[in-house]
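Tutorial handout. Part one gives the primary structure; part two gives the three-dimensional structure as tokens.
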Amino acid sequence: MQDDRDSGRRLTLFGAGPPKSGTHSIEGIFKQHYRAAHEPRRPRFIELILAHEYGWIGRDTRRAMFLDLVRRMDLEVVASHHMVHFVDLIRDHLRHAKVVLTIRNCYAWLDSIFNHELNRVTGLRLSSLRDLRYGRGRFVHAPEERLLSDHGLYTLDGYLSYWRWHIEHVIREMPRERLLVVRTRDLQTRIEEIAAFSGVPAATLSEDRSHEYKARRKHHVLERLDRHFLEAKVARHAGELMARFFPDVASLEDAGLGPGLRLAS
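Part two.
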């Protein structure tokens, strides 16, 4: 199996942020001059994730299937939250590859996830992946979360524990010199840093494509939850990461959520 050293690509970059955290924007930044795609081969990657997580395939099969998919796509930039499940393979078998981890503060992320899920029709594979990620069967809706249950959404424990796991997993697995962490709201101002990290001229990146794919309709679910309950869950699951990456966002109001307020990413 060939790795990226034999591929002849100008760069091999993975955008591996959580869903609704800027992977569309990573594709937009690069796609004018590079072979970039957002969630390419999504059904195949989801099948591979589920097969491994449920023990249907072993490590060698997982590795061979992942590397074969990467080779067949022949891309320079893969922007997909699914890549969180393969960062160990990226690290060990694509040794010139780098990862950009885009992150949103957990309040903005929850709001975006709620809107996204309520705006779409979900297929069986994606529903199974969401069940795995957000803990269907592991977490039970509290009385304060009746609104989430009524809308067919998961629990705050499920969403927030996944948000934390995704970020911590990428940071833990990728060597520091091959990882760049960028807050979603800072993508536009860090174009030159992204270019330098990727090893490409800044002039080849599209600054005006750094805020791609905004929600079509907002449902304002997050703002209608019990405020104390919500912030207690955030403190429990996301407190350390929020303090590290978003020290200016200590509450729902700080995140810019509410009537007449602008949402901070």
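Part three, for discussion. The beta strands are 13-15, 36-38, 77-79, 98-103, 179-183. Residues 1-8, 259-265 have pLDDT under 50 and may be disordered.
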